[in-house]
Structures are given as structure tokens and as C-alpha cells.
Amino acid sequence: MNFGRTDTSIMGRWWWTVDRWTIAALFLLAGIGLLLTMAASPAVADRIGADSFHFIRRQFIFLAPAMVVMVGVSLLTPKQVRRLGVVGFGCCLFLLLAVLFVGPEVKGATRWINVAGISIQPSEFTKPTFAVISAWMFAESRLNPGFPGKSIATGLFLLTALLLLRQPDVGQTLIIASVWGGQFFLAGLPMILVLGLVVLGVVGGVGAYFVFDHVQSRVDRFLDPTGGDAYQVMTALNAFKNGGMFGRGPGEGRVKLVLPDAHTDFILAVAGEEFGIALCLVVVALFAFIVLRGFSRLMKEENLFVVLATAGLLVQFGLQAIVNMASTLRLMPTKGMTLPFISYGGSSMLALALGMGMVLALTRTRYGSEEVER
After folding, report:
1. Under a CB-based contact definition with an 8 Å cutoff, are residues 76 and 373 in contact?
2. Carries keyword Transferase (predicted)?
3. Beta strand spans in the chain (E)
């Protein structure tokens, strides 16, 4: 693109106000994701009897609209982002409720629903939209002391958590809880209540262990790999060992031939074996750059809604990346969560594009009359 500073068109103003470094990092992540999908998915497709390029084609199909969504949403004003969040969250609540009644059960969980012939995971879209509407409620509560924004945000969180746990999806619930808790803290939560939430979180985690069998199984395998089926994690660790610093070379990896989730949850293991620890460090650096740069752009921000919404979206993005990478490296119990913009997955890709488009929109430089659009 080549826009002059005097260009007053929509795209011209966007080009000179958006964070182009963050966009470049996100596109680079998506490019690495395509490379790793091409490396990991043919073997998975062959094992399930599909065409070797089945997942690659689908990833290309989802990536193009995802990038369009991200750029399109980044053109919005903060007020328009807020409206999009409210409408989107309302749709997500409806779908979360509907999935419990009409969604198919897969591996003991009901998380997907078919809409117009497309399979959608509503929880993925709930995360960014919840971050926006929760930020709005907390901001209004701070600006208008008589407005029950904190109570509304808490009620929406509890409702969302209830619907997610009914699926059940403990991992997504924990991310939603982290977003809500982080925004509550930034909005001025007293320290005694912060400690109370920490204790409540610990109690909730212990409770999940005893209530949900799949959580108990994953924790037990993490604590004692020899006592249960820890095949995928141990195989992933061996892949990093075999890859060394610079990898065995593109197409030379073996982990993708045996790992069922090599193209999704354990795609970092494929990167480690074929391209080495060097590429893994590049991926980690890109995630860190995006999150830290996003927070750095908030340092001079005076609008509380923008600060809370952007912080919530960045926490969600960064935490999802940490959970995926830590699970692959056996630093925490396994959790079926994609690596943002890298793992295969249509719903995840589109939802992440929506969330990061909101981040780009909220962190754009705003001048003069544009401040009113907050």
C-alpha cells in the first residue's frame, strides 16, 4: 500500500493511524501457520482417509476471510467496536444455549453447532465479544457510580461460565474468567477482593478436578506420565529433542505420522522437529511482541473502555498461546486449545481475527473530532 499523509480516504486514514508493526507480526504468524499446516496436515488427512490436501485447502479457505475480517474490523471506531461486541455477544449466548440442545457430542463434549452448513464453535467467538461488553460495563460503572456495571459484568460472566461448563469446556471457562478478573482488577477492584478472587479461582480449579472426569484424567497424566495415557505429550517432547536447534528439515519430521492432533493442539511439536527450536523461539517472540506492543500503546490512553477492552483481548490472545505451548512442552496439563493463527481450525481463526481486529481498531491513533467517537 502507498498512501500519502494527506490522503483523507478511509483506507488512507487507517494506514496512518493503525499499528502496522502489529499487523505485520499477525500476518507473519498466519504465514508460519500455513507453512506448518502444509507440513503437519497431509499425514493426518491420510490417516483419516481424506485427500492429502484436505486440511491445507480448508486452512486457505478460512485464512482469506479471516484476514479480511481482521482488517475490516480494524477500520471501526471504539464506539462501533462496542456495538459489534454487544451484538456479537448476544448471538454467542444464543448459540451457546442452542449447542446444548442440537449440537453433536464429540469426545464426551458438546461444543459445535451447524449454522447454514458451516460447523461453528460458539465459545471461540464468545471470548472476544465478552471482553468488549465486560469492559464497557466496568468502564460505565467507574464513570457513572450509580450504574450497576460491575454487577452486570459479573452476571454475564457467571451466565457464560455456566453455559461453557455445561458443554463442558473448562479451558475456555478459565480464559473467560481470566479476562473478567483482569478487567475487574484494572477497573479498581479492592485488594482484599483480589485475594478473594484468587482463592475462589483455586477452589474452582480443585472443584473442576473432582467434578469433570476429563480434567481429572489430564491432571493425573500430568502428575504421573507413567500412570496413564500420556502418549501425545511424550511424543511431542521427543519431537523437540529430535529437531534440535535447526530441525531435521521440511518434510523430514516423524511426529506428524503418529500424533492424532499434529495439525491442531500439537502443531508446535511439528515446528520443533522439522524447523527446530529456532522457529519455535521466533513464534514465541512474535506472540510476546504483539501482546507487549498492544499494552505499550495503552500507556497514554485515557479512555477507560479502550484500556479495559484492549487489555482483555490481549490477555485472551496471550493466555491462549501460553496454554497451547505449555501443554505441548508438558509445563501444564494438556488442554485442547489451538495456537493462535497457527493451528488448523476455522472457528478459532475467524474468532482470533475478530479479536485482533478489535485490538487494532481500539489502539489506532485518534485525533481531534475522532476522539468523540470513543
Report:
1. no
2. yes
3. 113-115, 118-120
Could you tell me which of 217, 342, 370 has the C-alpha nearest to residue 268? Answer: 342
Give residue-wise pLDDT tens across range 308-361: 999 999 999 999 999 999 988 888 887 778 899 999 888 899 999 999 999 999
Q: How far apart are CA 114 and CA 203, in angstroms?
A: 35
pLDDT digits (tens, 9 = 90+) for 62-100: 899 999 999 999 999 999 999 999 999 999 999 999 999
> In 77-105, which positions are buried (b, 16+ CB within 10 angstroms) versus exposed (e)?
bbeebbebbeebbeebbebbeebeeebee
CA distance 235 to 262: 10
Grid coordinates representing 197 are 478472587
Residue 168, preceding bond cis, omega within 30 degrees? yes
Whether 347 contacts 126, CB under 8 Å? no
Nearest to 198 by CA among 212, 181, 211: 181
State whether residue 17 is helix, strand or coil. helix
- pLDDT on residue 5: 67
Rounded Cα–Cα distance for residues 171 and 198 (Å): 17
User: What one-letter code names the amino acid at 343?
Assistant: S
Eight-class DSSP state of 222:
H
Q: Residue 296's pLDDT is what?
A: 94
Q: Is 361 within 8 Å of 69 (Cβ atoms)? A: no
The model carries a pTM of 0.92
What the block records as the C-alpha cell of 278 is 529456532
At residue 171's C-alpha, the angle toward residues 166 and 175, to 5°, is 110
What pLDDT is attached to residue 320? 94
